[in-house]
Amino acid sequence: MNTTSEQNTSVNQDEINKAVWAACDTFRGTVDPSIYKDFVLTMLFLKYLSDVWQDHYETYKEEYGDHHELIEEMMKNERFHLPENANFYVLYGKRHEPGNGERIDKALHAIEEANINKLRDVFQDISFNSNKLGEEKQKNDILKHLLQDFAKDELNLRPSRVGNLDVIGNAYEFLIKNFAATSGKKAGEFYTPPEVSELIAELVDPQEGDEICDPTCGSGSLLMKCGNQVKKHFNGSKKYALFGQEAIGSTWALAKMNMFLHGEDNHRIEWGDTIRNPKLTGDNANDREDSLKHFDVVVANPPFSLEKWGVEVAEDDKFSRFRRGIPPKTKGDYAFVTHMIETMKPASPGRRGGRMGVVVPHGVLFRGSSEGKIRTKLIEENLLDAVIGLPEKLFYGTGIPAAVLIFKKNKTDPVTGLVDNSVLFIDASRNYKDGKNQNFLTDKNVETIVETYQARKNVDKYAYLASIEEIRENDFNLNIPRYVDTFEEEEEIDLMAVRQEREALKQQLAELEIQMDGYLAELGYE
């Protein structure tokens, strides 16, 4: 048990991050990272709940003494309720006994039951009693060491010690990012690099009161970046709502826990396949289930060119998402794009209409057939606002470069009343910082892209504002080099200087040949 003196010891973010990452050593060499990430992240969540609960309980105890019933009443005002036997420290105290996995599972289920509105089904896809951790003796030993890792002083997560929720939320994000960076091809399914999330959030410009949605939300990081924009520009305001849907159960659970740790209580994250079974329905007016819910901001980093995206349900889609055409059955990029388009709010008095930012592979910009037809219609409807080319090796699990597409439901200038019929192309593919295995955007790179997007002007070898007529002349091909000329003329060659240099080299070679012959003669070689 941590003492009061330990509680008051200051701690910084790096120390916590290193400690939670070190906890992974318990599993390394025994269990695959794609499996143990869920155990480590869930244990961090459990430890945080236990430390906050214990910290607040002891604070009330200092204030009210041994009035147990009064303290219990005060604890009912907490964001969550922690059942007595579901506390981390109870589990830690029994760590040397058999049955660690079963005890941890029971604690998680008790926490879920006690907080059913916030944590319903969050732990159903995680079992510490699973055979994935090995036979009973090995499993019990691994979990004993995991409990010991999280009981270390560095992971005393009490608010009286760490100061605020962001420290815990940041540690959670740190873990998710590191798992993404080391988990290979599947990593991109649950995490978007933070600087890319930041870029998209700034481009779509969330406002106070906005409803913000990510239909492929992964761990929820992109959604929270959008929420942070509102807090940043509106004096810390939390007047916004986050909505998301995620197809993978364990990743959906990550998003729910991530939201909880960041204090994002105004959210609705659904579990299910967005294309086959969209859960965010209701038209805002009468909550009709046969219509998609509309949002002020829609953002996503969908899986690139998903092969089995749900083409079998597209033709009879009751939400009319595929009225512009059905994407190829082995490439689902436009399925996600057109779903998102249909969920943007239309413009209305006092509201500027929906804005949307989506990450896509470059093939979306120029592939023909059904994708070409869908792309043509989106452009002719004047929904596309910008095409931004990103550097290669930004995304975990793939080295290919991607692009960000920005769409707007209403492209009318609020001041002049004129409709903007242009599309801005930005080639940011050469502006990045080279990492060891992964490239990333610097703050300056992000700032340059955002400023260029907002200025909406031509920038030599970087940005070009194209009219729809120009795009039409290019057969609605959005390949960025067609619009942004990055060609660098080679320096003119002085042929006479090259000839003189060549003659000088020939003379030097002749002199070296003579010198070499002399050396060979001295050594007795003819």
Structure, explained:
The longest helix has 32 residues. It contains 20 helices and 9 strands. Helix 2 packs across helix 10 and helix 11 packs parallel to helix 18. It is 44% helix and 10% strand. The chain starts with a helix and ends with a helix. The N terminus is likely disordered.
Highlighted features:
Ferritin, 526 residues, 20 helices, 3 domains, alpha/beta, globular, single chain
Secondary structure elements and pairings:
Layout: H1 4-7, H2 13-22, H3 33-64, H4 68-75, H5 88-93, H6 100-114, H7 116-119, H8 136-150, H9 159-162, H10 165-182, H11 194-204, E1 211-214, H12 221-233, E2 241-246, H13 249-261, E3 267-271, E4 297-300, H14 311-314, H15 333-342, E5 355-361, H16 363-366, H17 369-380, E6 384-389, E7 402-408, E8 422-427, H18 443-455, E9 463-467, H19 468-473, H20 495-522
Parallel strand pairs: 1-2, 1-4, 2-3, 4-5, 6-8
Antiparallel strand pairs: 5-7, 6-7, 8-9
Helix pairs in contact: 2-10, 3-4, 3-10, 3-13, 11-12, 11-18
Oligomer: single chain
* Average pLDDT, all residues: 88
State the CATH superfamily name of the largest domain.
Vaccinia Virus protein VP39
Strand content: 5-15%
The helical percent reads 40-55%
Low-confidence stretches: 1-9
Q: How many domains make up the coordinates? A: 3
- Strands side by side in the biggest sheet: 3-2-1-4-5-7-6-8-9
CATH second-level architecture of the largest domain: 3-Layer(aba) Sandwich
* Largest sheet properties: 9 strands, mixed
Number of helices: 20
What is the 3D form? globular
| Helix-strand string | HHHHHHHHHHHEHEHEEHHEHHEEEHEHH
Structure classification: alpha/beta
| CATH topology assignment of the largest domain | Rossmann fold
Distance between the termini: 90 Å
Radius of gyration: 29 Å
